[in-house]
TrEMBL record:
Its main location: membrane. PANTHER family: INNER MEMBRANE PROTEIN YBBJ. Coiled coil: none annotated. GO terms for molecular function: peptidase activity. This is Activity regulator of membrane protease YbbK. It is found in: Membrane. It is a multi-pass membrane protein. Keywords: Hydrolase, Membrane, Protease, Transmembrane, Transmembrane helix. GO terms for cellular component: plasma membrane. GO terms for biological process: proteolysis.
Length: 157
């Protein structure tokens, strides 16, 4: 019976981790599953609790930092970005008018659908814009000329 309680606790912690994405609760879930294993082997409740505490603590101290280091983006870790991360921050040439409804830009020789980062802006063909973010297959762009556009969106309050 103790094993079932630990398994239910482990599943609840794993499900809760899905909603928090902090890699914190899942470590306690691993401890609960280890305690379930101890319970299945006939260990007393005190040993089960000790297994839970030790496995949870070791997971937090050893495993969590390794996982977090591997899940950081290339921009955060200082590595060479690739894929969508490489496009964010680059300049693009407007090929078709970019407004809140439609638009087309050329980024490093590739055609991308585009929308303005600030939906009140529009960009005409021939203008240079900066890619602020990529959502799906759509580039969110901002006027590239900082002196005429004012501050970049990250600096706005």
């Amino acid at each position: 019976m103790d094993a079932v309680v630990w398994i239910v606790l482990g599943v609840l912690l794993a499900v809760a981790e899905i909603f928090t994405t902090t890699l914190f609760l899942i470590m306690f879930g691993a401890g609960a599953f280890a305690a379930a294993g101890a319970a299945a082997l006939g260990a007393p409740v005190a040993v089960q609790a000790l297994v839970f505490a030790v496995v949870s603590a070791l997971s937090l101290v050893v495993v969590r930092p390794v996982i977090r280091r591997h899940t950081r983006s290339a921009l955060e870790s200082g590595e060479q970005p690739f894929g969508v991360e490489a496009i964010e921050g680059s300049t693009a040439l407007v090929l078709e008018r970019v407004d809140a409804e439609h638009g087309l830009v050329k980024i490093d020789g590739e055609l991308w659908t585009a929308r303005p980062y600030d939906t009140t802006q529009t960009f005409e063909p021939g203008q240079r814009v900066r890619v602020i973010k990529v959502r799906g297959a759509t580039a969110l762009v901002w006027q590239d000329d900082v002196s005429s556009a004012g501050e970049l969106p990250e600096a706005r309050g």
